[in-house]
């Protein structure tokens, strides 16, 4: 039996392979590019390309592709073979440094939000040497950035790398103030927990809504849902266990650190969690994980659903973004230290995050806004649409003491002055977790729980990195001018806590009283994508994002339009699918059941002249529901037709929010009532009980 240690990373051109296949000079030059961002010499690129090609061919690869992440929400790739013609009619296998470093895919059909016209087709991909190349399905995959001919970022990798560099610059300024001269760089790390559903493939193919949209647009609740909580952490079914084992192996071959697997709360729901990695690599790995999850599922005659809310009435699926900041020396800057100075540094970075979340709560909310996630947020163990920070009782007490200039705990009477010995030690993780908080501190990291299961983690981390970088910039600007560093540090942390404590909430995020309290505090509550996304173009957000070089102004406005366009197209496809299912499947099925029941009444009365009260009531109720469904479908058809006449994206998104979604809800409500009383043999597709308990 093959050992994990023998095949882990076997399909990755990682540091081990580079050391073994590159000359010492080339290897050191490449490492300088990876670690410090120095320019890549073409001679080095040629040597790396030759080694990469030979390694890939030995592994059975015949093609290569520049693998990138356009604004579609999924990855993209164009495959080219290694073959080149030889004079004698044969072929040779070639791959140059130029081909490694740059590609030129057609950019005209990818979303650009007005940055590019349709006839302007040229786009470029550029190798990201910090993310290892890998082999999948006989092709060498080269992680790349994607930009237009005129230099605008058309993907999610470029802004993510920019945000990481912005945070690095500002964090380094802070560390120098603390006398830390050994650190050469600061990086954020992420461990994204991935939730998903597994359903039987044969049943999936019978549901047009699942095939077309990834979620059930109709469906009455079964007698049992997740009320018993017996699925959560329960024994894993053999078929699912086989899938999980197969998935782990495929991910491990690709160097993805899949660590944890278990059943989630809802029936048929599961979770995979990896070990932390540098943010841009974690983003690449998560995109690859989602693809592999779906591909492996098909081998087991299963379908992996990554939609945020595939089933109404049970838990949706999220992607918890565990985020931390560390130095190249291995120091976690969000971990309390052993000395007062270390704790002072920790509290400053903690204050920076608290300030960032408060100042840019709108950016964090819109970074996770999608049509699918709108259904999930605020219910069934998903956090509400209101952003808040959970710190736990002990850490909150420390901050309260600093704000009030009072002792923290014990019997000490001295005021808590940072940088001197009266600052006590406190535990790294001395509190329970808050599963309802969207942004929770968990010892040495923050868990941003609002991401949807199908989201790219890049968007959330772009805005999180940017917001924290801005807080650190403001802190550094003040502290670098201070004559008394310790006093200035104490005053700055105290002032920050006082000004931003409104964002701290340690209670139950599901409680309606919290939503009312959040409104009093002036916190944002953007319930839908249409509400949230326009705020990326608010003046304060544009100024911050452009000042750190994360986006140009044009890129910001383009992203607003791209995400709103994705929102309206997604909902419109769902609406049209509902109309199709109602007209062609549901209404005819219910009508046939009603007609057959009515015929049975006629037969029964002709034989015995019985009252047939049950059948008569049933036919009457079904007839009313058929009329209700027909009317609701006609209304939705009219709304879908009107939607096509709206040219501008902002009014279109508001129309979808205010008109289309409520009409869809009305049609679903009538259809779900009909499903609940229609004989199972008549209904045209598998019901919830079959889907949720059929694996």
Question: What is this structure, in a nutshell?
Answer:
This protein has 695 residues and is an alpha+beta fold.
Task: Describe the model.
This protein has 695 residues and is α+β, with helices and mostly antiparallel strands. The protein folds into 3 domains: 4-155, Ubiquitin-like (UB roll) (Roll); 163-551, Creatine Kinase, Chain A, domain 2 (2-Layer Sandwich); 566-693, Four Helix Bundle (Hemerythrin (Met), subunit A) (Up-down Bundle), CATH 1.20.120. It is built from 23 helices and 18 strands. Helix 9 (238-253) packs across helix 10 (279-299). The protein is globular and about 100 Å long. The model is unreliable at 410-416 and 418-423 (pLDDT under 50).
Q: Could you give the topology of this structure?
A:
Blueprint: H1 4-7, E1 12-13, H2 15-21, H3 24-36, H4 42-58, E2 63-67, E3 79-81, E4 83-85, E5 91-93, H5 97-101, E6 102-103, E7 123-127, E8 133-136, E9 139-148, H6 157-177, E10 186-200, H7 201-205, H8 208-213, H9 238-253, E11 258-263, E12 269-274, E13 277-278, H10 279-299, E14 302-305, E15 319-327, H11 340-359, H12 361-366, H13 371-376, E16 389-390, H14 393-404, E17 439-441, E18 446-448, H15 457-479, H16 485-500, H17 512-521, H18 529-532, H19 539-547, H20 553-608, H21 613-643, H22 649-677, H23 688-693
Parallel strand pairs: 2-9, 16-17
Antiparallel strand pairs: 1-8, 2-3, 4-5, 6-7, 7-9, 8-9, 10-12, 10-13, 10-14, 10-15, 11-12, 15-18, 17-18
Helix pairs in contact: 3-4, 6-15, 9-10, 11-15, 11-16, 14-16, 20-21, 20-22, 21-22
């Amino acid at each position: 039996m093959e050992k994990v240690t023998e095949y882990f990373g076997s399909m990755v051109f990682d540091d081990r392979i580079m050391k073994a296949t590159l000359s010492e000079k080339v290897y050191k030059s490449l490492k300088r590019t990876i670690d410090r961002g120095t320019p890549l010499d073409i001679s080095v690129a040629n040597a790396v390309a030759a080694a990469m090609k030979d390694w890939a061919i030995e592994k059975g690869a015949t093609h290569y592709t520049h693998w990138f992440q356009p604004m579609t929400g999924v990855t993209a790739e164009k495959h080219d073979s290694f073959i080149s013609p030889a004079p004698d009619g044969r072929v040779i296998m070639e791959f140059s440094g130029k081909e490694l470093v740059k590609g030129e895919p057609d950019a005209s059909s990818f979303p650009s939000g007005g940055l590019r016209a349709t006839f302007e087709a040229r786009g470029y991909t550029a190798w990201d040497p910090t993310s290892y190349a890998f082999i999948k399905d006989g092709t060498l995959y080269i992680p790349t950035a994607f930009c237009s001919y005129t230099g605008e970022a058309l993907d999610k990798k470029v802004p993510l790398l920019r945000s990481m560099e912005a945070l690095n610059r500002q964090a380094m300024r802070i560390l120098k103030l603390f006398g830390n001269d050994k650190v050469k760089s600061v990086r954020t790390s992420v461990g994204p927990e991935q939730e998903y559903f597994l359903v039987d493939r044969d049943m999936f193919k019978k549901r047009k809504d699942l095939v077309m949209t990834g979620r059930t647009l109709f469906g009455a609740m079964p007698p049992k849902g997740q009320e018993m909580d017996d699925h959560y952490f329960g024994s894993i079914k053999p078929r699912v266990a086989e899938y999980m084992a197969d998935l782990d192996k495929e991910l491990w071959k690709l160097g993805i650190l899949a660590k944890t697997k278990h059943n989630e709360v809802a029936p048929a729901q599961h979770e995979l969690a990896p070990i932390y990695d540098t943010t841009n690599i974690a983003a690449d790995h998560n995109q690859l994980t989602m693809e592999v999850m779906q591909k492996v599922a098909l081998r087991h005659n299963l379908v992996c659903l990554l939609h945020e809310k595939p089933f109404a009435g049970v838990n949706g699926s999220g992607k918890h973004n565990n985020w931390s900041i560390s130095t190249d020396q291995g120091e976690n800057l969000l971990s309390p230290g052993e000395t007062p100075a270390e704790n002072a540094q920790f509290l400053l970075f903690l204050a920076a995050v608290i300030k960032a979340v408060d100042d840019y709560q709108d950016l964090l909310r819109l970074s996770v806004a999608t049509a699918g996630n709108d259904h999930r947020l605020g219910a069934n163990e998903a956090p509400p649409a209101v952003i808040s920070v959970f710190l736990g009782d002990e850490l909150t007490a420390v901050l309260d003491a600093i704000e009030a200039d009072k002792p923290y705990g014990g019997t000490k009477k001295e005021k808590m002055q940072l940088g001197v010995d009266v600052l006590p030690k406190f535990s790294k993780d001395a509190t329970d977790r808050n599963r309802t908080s969207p942004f929770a501190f968990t010892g040495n990291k923050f868990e941003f729980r609002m991401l949807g299961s199908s989201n790219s983690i890049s968007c959330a981390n772009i805005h999180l990195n940017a917001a924290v970088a801005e807080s650190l910039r403001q802190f550094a600007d003040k502290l670098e001018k201070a004559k008394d560093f310790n006093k200035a540090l104490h005053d700055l942390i105290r002032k920050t806590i006082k000004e931003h404590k409104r964002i701290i909430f340690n209670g139950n995020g599901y409680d309606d009283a919290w939503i009312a309290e959040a409104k009093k505090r002036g916190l944002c509550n953007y319930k839908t994508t249409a509400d949230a996304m326009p705020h990326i173009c608010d003046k304060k957000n544009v100024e911050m994002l452009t000042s750190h070089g994360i986006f140009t102004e044009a890129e910001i406005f383009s992203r607003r339009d791209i995400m709103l366009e994705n929102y309206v197209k997604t909902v419109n496809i769902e609406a049209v699918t509902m109309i199709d299912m109602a007209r062609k499947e549901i209404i005819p099925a219910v009508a046939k059941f009603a007609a057959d029941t009515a015929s049975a009444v006629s037969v029964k009365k002709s034989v015995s002249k019985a009252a047939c009260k049950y059948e008569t009531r049933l036919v009457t109720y079904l007839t009313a529901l058929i009329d209700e469904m027909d009317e609701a479908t006609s209304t939705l058809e009219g709304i879908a037709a009107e939607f096509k006449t709206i040219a501008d994206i902002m009014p279109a998104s508001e129309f979808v929010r205010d008109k289309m979604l409520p009409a869809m809800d009305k049609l679903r409500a009538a259809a779900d009532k009909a499903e609940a009383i229609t004989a199972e043999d008549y209904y045209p597709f598998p019901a919830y009980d079959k889907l949720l308990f059929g694996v």
